Amino acid sequence: MSAPFCILLLVTVVASAPTPPPAAIFTPAYAEATCDDVMMKGGLTPDFAYSVAHRLYSLTLEDVRYYFCPKATVDNDIPTVNQDLSSSTRVLPYTPLAGSDTSFLTSGLRYVTLYLLDLLHEVGQ
Length: 125
Known about the structure:
Elements (H helix, E strand, L loop, with lengths): L2 H14 L5 H4 L9 H7 L6 H10 L3 H7 L12 E2 L9 E2 L14 H16 L3
Antiparallel strand pairs: 1-2
């Protein structure tokens, strides 16, 4: 597993659910806890792995630049699902640039833009 992927996974974990304050993790109450115990106390569900995998398949270079490394390039070694479903290549060895409007301040608005542009493309406009 490459270092960028590990960092991405860690940040996704932290960002995807409320967690106990960092100091609480190092208290005696957690000394004998299993990973499952800590994850459940942190608000993570049994579907956590599925949620992380679901998010990673749609990751874009814009996301990597926004959340992790503003200077990231296409040569980033973070595998993701190829969004071009007509391609015979199912998994890309890198996270591609999606071409979203980076002037929006939130990733949600960038994804709405991509979705709407895709809809316009489908209807031929």
